[in-house]
Amino acid sequence: MCKKVFTSKGYLKVHSRLHTGEKPFACNICSEAYPQRGNLKVHLRLHTGEKPYSCNICSKAYPQKMHLEAHLSLHAKEKYLACYINNKIISSKSSLKTPEGEKPFFCVICNKAFTLKTDVKTHLQMHTREKSFSCDVCNKVFSHKSSLNTHLHAHTR
């Protein structure tokens, strides 16, 4: 076994399955087995057709959050920036001066407003970057290991 230390017996139990290969959660339809209940829950959507994650831009739906996030990055590339001033859409390439206090640039994914076009570009990376750190307890995925570690403390409270 490895020398990882966990804050609870539950975390240790879930982690130890990586070493033992134990897969106690089996699909009652096809017998596919998983080490975590959350993995089985996602798998069952293949059989039920459930797609709980839908795009707020085009309404396309997905069985997993990470599939929706990948889809949203395509929208971000298609329609990178939009500037709305007095209800008129202005090309993202325009070099207008922004009146003080106004935030005419919007994220096409979450609608957060920004004063500068460059701030929107930086913000969009948060939506599109790969997320590779997964919580063993609830399957939430993070871009940074430090964010995952902070999240893990919520499970121990």
Automatic annotation (TrEMBL):
<dbReference type="InterPro" id="IPR013087">
    <property type="entry name" value="Znf_C2H2_type"/>
</dbReference>
<feature type="domain" description="C2H2-type">
    <location>
        <begin position="133"/>
        <end position="157"/>
    </location>
</feature>
<keyword id="KW-0804">Transcription</keyword>
<keyword id="KW-0862">Zinc</keyword>
<keyword id="KW-0863">Zinc-finger</keyword>
<keyword id="KW-0805">Transcription regulation</keyword>
<keyword id="KW-0479">Metal-binding</keyword>
<dbReference type="GO" id="GO:0005634">
    <property type="term" value="C:nucleus"/>
</dbReference>
<keyword id="KW-0539">Nucleus</keyword>
<keyword id="KW-0677">Repeat</keyword>
<dbReference type="InterPro" id="IPR036236">
    <property type="entry name" value="Znf_C2H2_sf"/>
</dbReference>
<dbReference type="GO" id="GO:0008270">
    <property type="term" value="F:zinc ion binding"/>
</dbReference>
<feature type="domain" description="C2H2-type">
    <location>
        <begin position="1"/>
        <end position="24"/>
    </location>
</feature>
<dbReference type="Pfam" id="PF00096">
    <property type="entry name" value="zf-C2H2"/>
</dbReference>
<feature type="domain" description="C2H2-type">
    <location>
        <begin position="53"/>
        <end position="80"/>
    </location>
</feature>
<dbReference type="GO" id="GO:0003677">
    <property type="term" value="F:DNA binding"/>
</dbReference>
<feature type="domain" description="C2H2-type">
    <location>
        <begin position="25"/>
        <end position="52"/>
    </location>
</feature>
<feature type="domain" description="C2H2-type">
    <location>
        <begin position="105"/>
        <end position="132"/>
    </location>
</feature>
<comment type="similarity">
    <text>Belongs to the krueppel C2H2-type zinc-finger protein family.</text>
</comment>
<keyword id="KW-0238">DNA-binding</keyword>
<protein>
    <recommendedName>
        <fullName>C2H2-type domain-containing protein</fullName>
    </recommendedName>
</protein>
<dbReference type="GO" id="GO:0000981">
    <property type="term" value="F:DNA-binding transcription factor activity, RNA polymerase II-specific"/>
</dbReference>
